[in-house]
Design brief:
The chain is α+β, with helices and mostly antiparallel strands and 240 residues long. The chain is 25% helix and 32% strand. A six-stranded antiparallel beta sheet has the order 9-14-13-12-10-11, sandwiched between helices. A five-stranded antiparallel beta sheet has the order 5-6-4-8-7. A three-stranded antiparallel beta sheet has the order 1-3-2. It is globular.
Length: 240
């Protein structure tokens, strides 16, 4: 959806919430759409939620308190012994093959061989009734919740960067050239904590969540020392 059309849609939902005095909700929004929403300065500000703390794809609620129409569905192999090693991409592809639109599907967290998928309540029954296979693996679907200890973050890693500048760290984490890292920032493909950032020189801080469209997302954990050549060792954790 074009930015102008998206803003018009947000305005419509905001007005509906006000005139009808009730909570109304968007579909799942990607990071760029969330950034556009937050720049509109609605009052009161809409609330963003994706089903769990730290979700990337989130729906927005305009208006007073109201439960988000979201569900968590567990997709598990019928027989783990014969199951393929399924990925986030496999789960998403199987769901979309049912004719479900991407905007109705939020994050997918892989844990212990199963996928925990956050979806709009409107598509829950279709997934429960129709999804029986992911790639060549027979699966079963059930309404669930994200297990304690499940995370979309991988183990901590280290990389070597020239500094804690955004472009330098992005380049180091994703194996880009420094020029490509800077281009990603300049072109608006990099987000920090969900907000677009076009400042290559911005210094990252421990706890910043950085997303690079087309590459992935990582949690920046700060520096951990200096190499013999004076370059920084930085810590980060990739999201699955």
């Amino acid at each position: 959806m074009e930015e102008k059309d998206l803003i018009n849609r947000f305005d419509e939902l905001y007005e509906r919430s006000y005139t009808e005095n009730r909570a109304v909700f968007t579909d799942f929004l990607d990071l760029q759409s969330q950034d556009i929403l937050e720049r509109q300065r609605y009052y009161p500000a809409p609330v963003l939620y994706g089903g769990y703390e730290g979700a990337e794809r989130r729906a927005a609620r305009f208006g007073d308190d109201g439960d988000f129409p979201l569900e968590c569905i567990r997709i598990s192999p019928k027989d783990m012994k014969f199951a393929e090693e399924l990925t986030h991409r496999d789960m998403l592809g199987a769901i979309l093959s049912l004719g479900i639109e991407r905007r109705t599907v939020g994050d997918i967290v892989m844990h212990a061989g199963s996928g925990y998928v956050f979806v709009l309540s409107s598509v829950r029954d279709l997934i429960l009734d129709e999804l029986d296979r992911v790639r060549h693996t027979a699966v079963v679907c059930s309404v669930s919740s994200l297990p304690e200890g499940a995370s979309s973050v991988k183990e901590e890693r280290t990389a070597v960067a020239s500094s804690e500048r955004l472009d330098a760290v992005v380049s180091a984490v994703f194996g880009m050239s420094r020029a490509d890292g800077k281009s990603a920032v300049d072109e608006g493909r990099v987000f920090i904590r969900g907000s677009e950032c076009r400042e290559p020189s911005r210094t990252l801080k421990a706890g910043d969540v950085v997303s690079v469209r087309g590459h992935g997302k990582f949690l920046y954990a700060g520096e951990s020392g200096v190499t013999g050549k004076g370059r920084l060792r930085v810590k980060y954790a990739l999201y699955k």
